[in-house]
Records
---
Amino acid sequence: MNNNRPKILLGRFALDGHDKGIITVIDACKNAGMEIVYIHFSNPEEVVKSAIEEDVDVIGITSSLGQHMLVSSVLMQELSHNKVNIPVIMGGVIPTIDVPKLMDIGIKKVFGPGSTPKEAVSFISQIAQKEEP
Amino acid sequence: MDEQVKNLRQEWEREIRETYEKKLKFTLPEYHNESGIPLNYVYDPENIADTPSEMPGQYPYTRGIRALGYQYMPWMIQMLHGYGTSEETRHRTDFLLKEGMRGFKEEQPVILIEVDPPTTVGFDPDDPRAFGAVGLGGPSVSTLEDLDNLLKGHDLSKTRFAPNTRFSCLPMLAMYIVYAEQRGYKPNELNGQSQNDPLSRWITTDIGAPTPSTQFKLRMELIKYCCQNMPRWNHTNLCGYLYGETCASPAQELGIVMAEAIETIEAGIKAGLNPDEFVSRFSSQLHIGMNFFEEIAKIRAWRRIWAKTMKERFHCQNPRSLQYRMHVHTGGSSLTMEQPLNNIVRATLHTLASILGGVQSLHTCSYDEAIGLPSEDAVRTAIRVNQVLLHETDIPYVSDPLGGSYYIEWLTSKVEEEANQVINQIESRGGFSKCIEDGWLRHLLENQMLKWRQEIDSEEKVMVGLNKFRAEEEMEVPPFVVKAKETAEIAVDRVKRWKANRDNAKVKRALDDVKEAMKKYDSIKKAGILMPTLLEAARAKCTLGEMMGAIYEVTGGRVYASEYGRR
C-alpha cells in the first residue's frame, strides 16, 4: 500500500527567495497522497545525494532566479555520474525559449509561469507509477 | 438634512428591490474585498457621519503628510535595478537616470540597487555556497571596489543610495561609510537608506539567515548608529511589499508591519533611544495590488494608524515622527507571463492607486517581470507610466482628490479597524518576533498563498490571460538574459585580486574584533558596540562576506524560517 505511494524530492536553490510556487506544489502533492521530501540546496550534488538516500521516484526543482540552465545541466551530469535514472521536472520563472534546451538535456517536463500545481501532480503521478508488489 | 439622506436612501433601496430583484429577477451578488470587508453597493453621507474633518498636512495625516502634495513635490521615481557585474548595473543606472529616474528634484539621483542573492546573505562570489547565483537579480557587492563601480562620479551628498540587501545591511552600511570617507564625505552628509528589515525578508523568502535574535540585534545596532551619526539616512525600510507578494490582504500587510514597527520602537527605547530620535527615519515599501480602492484606503489608513500610534503610544513630540513616508513597489505577483502587454495596464492601475493615495515614491514594475529581469525597453515604459500620469493628466493638481468620497472615507476607517485587529492579534500572541519564531506568521502566509492558488484554479479569482481570456497564440517577449557564467568569473576574479592586495594580518585582527564585539553583544541594551568594529574591518579591506562570516560564526550560523515552529 504505502509502497505505491509516490515519493518526490522537491528542491529549491537555497538562495532563491521565490517559494510561493513550490509551497502550492507541495500542498497539491500531499493532497494527492504523495510523500514529499523538501530540501534547500546550494549545489545540485546535494539533490542527487538526497534523492539516492531517500530513494525517491521523481525529482522536482524550482528555479526563479535565472539559473535553471546551470542547475539543471549540473544536476543531470551528477545523476549520470551516479548512474541513477530518476526523472527530473522543473518549475519556476523559466522563459519558454529555454524549455526545448532543458528537454534536450533530459528534463522530463517544465512547468513555467502559468502552470498549475494540478498539472504538475498529474504529470508526477504518470511518471512515478511504481510496479505492483 | 439627515431626513433627506434617509429618504433618498430608501428610494434607492426600493428601486433595487422593485426593479432589479422583482422585475429583472436579478440575484444580487455579494462582494467582499481582499481584507474580508463586506461591501455595500453604494455609500452615502450616513456612512461617514463619524469621520472627523481633516485637511492634508494635519494630524492624523489621513489626507497626506504635507499641506501641498504633488503640486509642490512630485513623487520620486525610484526604480529598483541591478544585474550582472557592477559595471553592467552602473550602465543600467545611467540609462534609468537618463530616462527619468529621480528623487524629488531632477538633480537628485536615486540609486536603488538590488544585489545578488549571495550578497544579501553575506557570501562573497568565491564562496562555494554562492554557486550559480552570482550576478543574478543584481550585482555582487562585496568590496569597496564594487561600490566604486556603482557610484563613482556621483556627488554622494546629493545622491540617494539604497542598497537592497537583506541580512547583510550592517556590514554593507559600514562599507558604504568607509567608501564615502575615502572620497571625503562624512557620515552625516550621506543620504539614502538601509533595508534593515531582515525578519520580514526571512519569513517571506525562506532564505537561510542569521537566527532571529541575531537579526534583531544587527537591526538595532544599525538604528542606533544612524541615530547618532547619520541624520539624513533612513535606517529601516519597513517592508510590507513581501507580505503583499505572499498574498497577505491589504489590512494584514498593514497590521503585520505596524506590529513589527511597534516592537522595533520598543526595542529602540530599550537600547537607550528616545522615539523622537529615530521614528522619523523609518521609511517604507508598500505593496499595491489589483484592489484599487482598497489599496487607496490602505495607504490613507496606514498614515492614520502610524500617526495615532506614535502620538498616543510612544508620545512622540516631533511632527515628523507622526508623518509616515511611503514608497510603493507595484505588485509583481499581479503580473502574468501570458499576454505580457496587459501588465502595462495592471502596473498603471497600481501606480494610479498609489498616487491617489498620496505616496512619496514609486517603483512601477515592468511588463516583462513575470518572465525575468526587465529589459531596457520594458523598464523605460514603466518610467513612462509615471511621467504620463504626472505630466499629461490633471491628477497632480489637487491633494487627496478622493478625500470626502463616502466610499473611500468609509473604507479607510474599515481597513484601519481590520488592521488594528491584526495588530492586536499579533500583540496578544506575544508580539511580532514571537509570531515569527513560533511559525505562526509563516503559517498564516502559507495559508493565504494556498487560498490564492485555489481561487485561481477555481476561477473564483480572474487573472486575464492566465485562467480566463487566454490567447490562441501567445506573444513572445524576449527574456532579458544575464550571462551568468561570465559574470560569476569576473566577480570571483575581482574578489580574489582584492584579497591578494591587502594586509591579511590586519584583516584577521579586524575580523577577530568583530567576533569579539558580537559575542559581547548579548542584549539590545548593548547596541552600539558592534558597528565600530565593522567600520574598522571595512577600512582594513575586509569583504562583505568576511564580515558577515564573522557574525555567523559566533551566532549559530544560518537558519531557515520554514523550519521554525513546524507543526
---
Amino acid sequence: MGKTIIGISDMKVSRDSEELLITFSLGSCVGVVIWDPLAKVGGLLHYMLPQAKLDEEKARKKPYMFANTGIPLLFKEAYRLGAKKNHLQVKVFGGSQLLDSSNIFNIGQRNYQIMRRMFEKNNIKIDAEDIGGNVNRTVSLEIGTGRTVLKVSGRGEVEI
Amino acid sequence: MSRLEEIIALIQHIPPFPKVAIRVMELLKDPDVQAAQLAEVIQYDPSITANVIKMCNAAYFGLPRKVSSLDDALVVLGNETLKDIIIAGSSARFYKGEIGAGYMLELGELWKHSVAVAIMARLLVRHIKNVDPGSAFTAGLLHDIGKRFLSSFVADDFARIVQEVDREKCSFVTAEKNYLGISHADLGAMILEKWQFSPEQVEAVRRHHDSDALERDELTALVALSNGLVISMGIGVGVDGLATELHSEGLNRFAIGSMELQLCMADLVMEMEGAGEILDL
C-alpha cells in the first residue's frame, strides 16, 4: 500500500484505494479524517492553529495551517473527487495541551472549538473523536476501506 | 553500585564537546575578532570546516552567494550565524543513531526536536530581551542532551513510568525522576557543566521542565517556552507527549500572549522547511 505522510499544516485527499494517509505526532494540532464509503474517497488534514486572520500572508502560502482555511479546502477537494456531504464519515483527533494552570497554552482547545463551531454551522456531524489530554497522537486512514487507526505513543494503537 | 550512581558514572565516559568549537565561541566574544584568527582555529577540525562550508550554502541561513572555502565562508558569515553553525555542526555528532528509543523516538527525531527548539529560541528573542541569541540557540540545541544518555534506563522502567504518568496525571519528567533518581534535565545540566558551557546555559537546561521556569531568569524562561511550544506542535515528541507542566503566568512580564505564541509557531513551520541541511548534519 502506498503511504503518504501528511506533515504539519498539510492535507491530502485521495480516491486511490491502495493509498494510506498518515499523520504523525498530533499535539495541540488537530487531524481531521473524512471518508465517503460509497465514493471511496478520503482525506486527512493536519492543521495547527485556529484562525487565518493571525497572519494572512502565511494563510495564503499555507492554507492548511489554519482551521478556518484548511477545513473548507479538505471538504471541497473531497467533493471534487466525488464524495457527497451526506455520506461523509468525519473523525477528529488531537487538540492536546501542556499541563498549565491558566489559559495561554490552550491552543489545542481553541483548535477544537473553532472546528466544532464550523461543523455545527454547516450541519456536519462528528462520527468519532479522540481529543484533548496530554498525549501525542498518530492517525492513519486507508482510502480503500476507511479503516482509521489511532496510535498513542507508548500506549498502543486502536481502530476508531 | 546503585542505578543512580551508574547513570552519573556514565558522564565520565561522555566524549568531550569539540575543543575547536569552544575555542571559537571564546574568540567570538570579541566583536572585533578577525576572520583570519577564526580560520586559524577552525581549520584544524576537518568536520567543523566541512560543516561551515556546507551550512553557508544552506537555505536556512539565506546567504547571497555560494562559498567553497573556509576563508570565503568566514568573510561572508556574520559572527552570530557562524556561532550557530559551529554549535549545530559540533552537536549533531551526539545525536546520531538509535538514541531516543527509550522515549519511543524514531531515528533522527531527537535531533529534529532539538533543532526546532533552537530555532524557536532564536525566534523568541524578539520577545524575551536581554538574552544573547547565540546562547539561546545553543541552549535550545542541547536542552535534551540528557535524553540521549538516559534513554536506555527509561527503556528498562518504561511500563512503570508510563503508568505513573497516566495514573497520577503528573509530568513525564516527574515520573522519570521518581523511578531513575534523576531526570534527563538534571543529567543534561551535568553534561553541559562537564563541557564547560556557561552557568546560565547549564541552569536553563537543568530547569527546562520546571513548572515555574517562566518565572526564572530570561534564558531559562526562553528555553522552557521554546521547548513547550515545540512539544505542543508535536515535533520530535515521543512517549512523554505533552505531559510537561509549564505555568504560563510567567509570560506576563514579557508581554507574551496567545497571539505572540501562535505567530512564533507559524514562523517555526516556515523556518523548519529551510532547515533541511541542519537536520542532515
